[in-house]
Amino acid sequence: MLIEIGTIINKYQQQNEVHSGNQVLLKTKEVLNRYPAISNYGLNEAVKNGFIPVVKIGKLNYFDVRDIEKYLSSNKVVVNENEKVNKKYV
Fold first, then answer.
1. How far is Cα 39 from Cα 33, in angstroms, rounded to an integer?
2. Domains in the chain and their CATH numbers?
3. For the chain, how are helix, strand and coil distributed in percent, rounded to 5?
4. How would you write the pLDDT of the chain (90 residues) with one tens digit per residue?
5. Nearest to residue 25, comparing CAs of 51, 45, 55?
6. 11-31 b/e with 16+ CB inside 10 Å = b?
7. What is the DSSP letter of 30?
8. Nearest-5° angle of CA 36, CA 75, CA 28?
């Protein structure tokens, strides 16, 4: 039974991820599910402003996992307890 569950999970991942060499491309919904810190609006704004590159195949947008993680790590800030921080929504 565990083998069957593993097979089902692998098939699901293969359907939703496009592998190009060592690059993993995710559809928009998969990005939003995998990275809950990113909203649909924030993702669209990041693409529109050139912060996250997108691969267009037909009408679908695909995102490289490495680009998403790079974008998230570039938006990290260290907050001290006594400082005010301008809120930036991703």
1. 10
2. 17-90 (1.10.10)
3. 45, 20, 35
4. 556 665 665 565 555 555 556 678 899 999 999 999 899 999 999 999 999 999 998 889 999 999 999 999 998 877 777 766 666 655
5. 55
6. eeeeeeebeeeeebbbbbebb
7. H
8. 40
The angle at the Cα of 28, spanning 70 to 25, to the nearest 5 degrees, equals 60
Closest among 3, 74, 50, 60 to 26, alpha carbons compared: 60
Q: The tokens of 83 are what?
A: 């400082």
Alpha-carbon span 34 to 25, nearest angstrom: 12
**Are 68 and 52 spatial neighbours (Cβ–Cβ below 8 Å)?**
yes
